[in-house]
Amino acid sequence: MLTRKNKLVLLKLLSLFSIVRGYNILIIVLAQYLTSIFILAPQIRLRHVILDPNLFFIVLASAGVIAAGYIINNFYDKEKDLINRPQKTMLDRLVSQRTKLTGYFVLNFLSVVCASYVSFRAVVFFSLYIFGIWFYSHKLKKFPIIGNIIASLLAITPFFAVFIYYKNFDEVIFVHATFLFLMLIMREMIKDLGNLRGDLAQNYKTIPIVYGEFVSKRIISILVLASGLPIYLLLNRYEIGFMYLYFYVCIVLLFAFLFGIWRSEGRTHYVWLHNILKLIIVAGTFSIILIDVDMILDKIF
Predict the structure, then answer these.
(1) How far apart, in whole angstroms, are the C-alpha atoms of residue 132 and residue 8?
(2) Burial profile 151-171: b = 16 or more Cβ within 10 angstroms, e = fewer
(3) Is 169 helix (H, G, I), strand (E, B) or coil?
(4) Torsion-angle region of residue 212: left (phi > 0), alpha (psi -120 to 50) or beta?
(5) How far apart are the first and last CA of the chain?
(6) Between 170 and 218, whose confidence is greater?
(7) Is 189 left (phi over 0), alpha (psi -120 to 50) or beta?
(8) What average pLDDT score do residues 153-173 get?
(9) Is the pLDDT confidence value at 272 over 60?
(10) CB-CB contact of 115 with 123 (8 Å)
(11) What pLDDT, on a 0 to 100 scale, did the predictor assign at position 84?
(12) Distance CA 100, CA 67 (A)
């Protein structure tokens, strides 16, 4: 039997995991490795990529900065989240604000230490990344359009870290990145629609508040249609192996998403739409291995 004290410790650990979005970080770490193996460095054998200490420290630094970013975002959004996500907020409040700030600074410091193992340029890169996340959380997220764009750019920044490391400038990488960016910015805008009450109470100037829900839905619809271009290019211009199956599924999901957004009327509907985009993003991580199934065996043996 767990004692009351042990239960409290477990709840605090669960709260900390919730604050830093541990599941998201695990997905990003996996995505960085899969991107490195199958897209950025396909000519390097699997064990050499996995056992590369520089890549390991880049991924570790990315995870630390992202975790710290979630902490500072939680710190600034505590009042808004209490309105939009009361149950999660009550769990998050098991960890004190002082502990959150301590964790924020410690994680950022350790991330820079990890980056220093790679190079001085990596230290500069991650230092700027840390500042960008703080500035977004402190100022930029309250502004319409620019807040959504910056949030989406910050979300794909970890992939730029490994992109710069491998110095792979193939055109197909930018097309993949464009598709991911469009999915992320749509997700941010859907979150704004779902968080309307909390944003309004805290005087956030998001697109739905400043321009209305209709305009927000219209912009999202344009982004859905715009995502058709990178999908078309990836299906018809580049060799993506069996990953074409993923993009065909994406087309179906995006049509369902487009239909759903014009039928949506409340937070519950927006949560479903957010989950569709999250499914597309997460499934995209695992589908990277479909780019060249034969490569998996070649890299192992």
Answers:
(1) 34
(2) bbebbebbbebbbebbebeee
(3) coil
(4) left
(5) 48
(6) 218
(7) alpha
(8) 86
(9) yes
(10) yes
(11) 67
(12) 11
> What are 115's two structure tokens?
């980056």
Instruction: State the amino acid at position 113 in one-letter form.
Output: V
Q: Which of 256, 255, 248 is nearest to 290 (CA)?
A: 248
Please state, as a whole number, how many other Cβ atoms lie within 10 Å of the Cβ of residue 248. Answer: 12
What is the maximum alpha-carbon separation in the chain? 61
- Cβ neighbours of 203 (radius 10 Å): 9
**Residue positions counted in the chain:** 301
Going from N- to C-terminal start, the domains of the chain cover 18-300
Give the three-class secondary structure for 77: coil
Tokens of 205: 């100037």
Cα–Cα distance measured from residue 122 to residue 57, given in angstroms and rounded to the nearest whole number: 10
238-262: pLDDT as tens digits: 888 889 999 999 999 999 999 999 9
The Cα–Cα gap between 265 and 268 comes to 8
Give the residue carrying structure tokens 């998996």: 296
**What does the block give as tokens for 299?**
């890299």
> d(Cα 84, Cα 106) in Å, to the nearest integer?
29
Tell me the per-residue pLDDT of 61-100, one tens digit each, with 9 for 90 and over: 999 999 999 888 887 777 666 666 666 666 566 677 788 8
Residue 281 contacts residue 156 (beta carbons within 8 Å)? no
| Token pair belonging to 254 | 């995006």
Is residue 270 within 8 Å of residue 190, measured between CB atoms?
A: yes
Q: Which two tokens mark 225? A: 């249609």
pTM above 0.85, yes or no: yes
Q: Which residue has the tokens 């979300």?
A: 155
